[in-house]
Sequence to fold (490 residues):
Amino acid sequence: MPAECNVRPSAAIVGAGFGGVGMAIRLKQAGFDDLTIYERGESVGGVWRANTYPGAACDVPSHMYSFSFARGDRWTRRYAPQEEILDYLERITDGFGLRPHLRLGTEISEASFDEATGRWTVVTEAGDSNEVDLLITACGQLTTPAIPAVEGIEDFTGPTFHSATWDHGLDLDGLDVAVVGTGASAIQFVPAIAERTRSLTIYQRSAPWIVPKWDRGYPAWERRLFQRVPARVGISRLGLFSMFEAFTYAFTGSDWMMPPFRKTADRFRERELADRALRRKATPDYDIGCKRVLFSSDWYSTLARPDVELIDEPIARVTAAGIIGADGVERLADAIIYGTGFRSHDFVAPMEVRGIAGRSLNEEWARKPEAHLGTGVSGFPNMFVLYGPNTNHGSGSVLYTLESQFNQVVDAAERLRESRLRYLQVRPDAQARFAAEIERRSADTVWVNGGCVNWYLNEEGQNTNNWPGPWLEYRRRTRRLDPADYEFVA
Ligand code: NAP
Fold:
């Protein structure tokens, strides 16, 4: 254990998903031991604890989906299922001694900064409070389920739930089930439940771009190889990173790279869907990459089943017994499952965060969330937002973002320790310059001009969620805090 334990700064980390767990490990490794990780759930895991729907798995290859400082080496498949990822998080929580720092079942309702002391007070739902030097939010971008505001939604008398709050008590065998949405979650759970339901009616507002998921199990010898020769995993990571980086270039202006991606998806659809009418319904009418490109080798074959119907129009109304589509036809259902995504612009909400002079982060972010390099916010000193605005990937692994941001936070913690500063905060001009840069660079991306509605843009069409550039650049710019961008207050 490092010599300097329990030294300033102390930190409160809100959330025990990949962000919170990884951040705590990196801070401990840097000698900061006065850490409290608040988690409203009853265990660590974040989205991987919440999303337990049938078929839940990562659509980023497993070798890319563990921290570089805590490599996962027990994956049984190329694309790890949810239970294995959750198990990885539990194991690193134990392995790095995080248990004593965890406050499970504890939701932080508010956090406020005191300029005189340079400290944050965090308050739990139960009314307990704690004072710390650093506030680190690790709340994720895909935490709060979004249920569409459709007329009659309360009228349905059968069981109904969102993919992120799956009702495992409901036996779907032999039921007529309606599914709303065809995003990353639905394309995983629909094939997994189609074998069991009597019929499935899928409501699709817009068709996703799908490429085959070249998944496979790892035989025992290969798993042993990964465990004994870490360099083999390292080579894999490098290859995958380069591939994802190529996709990123394609999505952010180098659209001459798009045709091969599009051709792969088109050919796959043509091969899988013989029925022309169904193929037409399943063909996207916007540019590839505008919404997340989905990996699935069983989505199209599921759509082609005789007991599955794809309705390619939005839902008009929910009734007591089913759903009325835009065509005015009511289709009956025993259960409705919403695979309708998340409130991706909420970031830290519903937690109330108050900075200098009581400024409310949620109010300032209501129109357009902005953070310098996606982590620091002017007026909110000694606070870092993990996986904040403009740090999501159009393609790639969010763990790369998080590790980049950990570097910034550790640097900030070291500066607070070494210089005995009261606080540090992003300069407003640095934040404004960064916001302008994001806006300028986003104009060239497929997310903004690809002809779709996606969860990366706000209502005004501004990119609030994705990083519009290469990830190597993001890593370089977040390696340390740039002193020119920060104000240091003694
Ligand atoms: P999503 O991709 O946002 O998909 C939501 C779906 O619901 C879309 O098809 C959307 O239609 C539809 N929808 C939303 N509101 C609707 C309404 N009012 N009426 C009809 N349809 C409506 O959500 P998700 O599938 O939960 O995935 C969210 C994100 O989670 C993904 O993009 C990905 O980043 C992450 N995820 C990752 C994995 C993984 O393996 N790593 C797995 C699952 C999810 P439109 O397309 O027309 O908007």
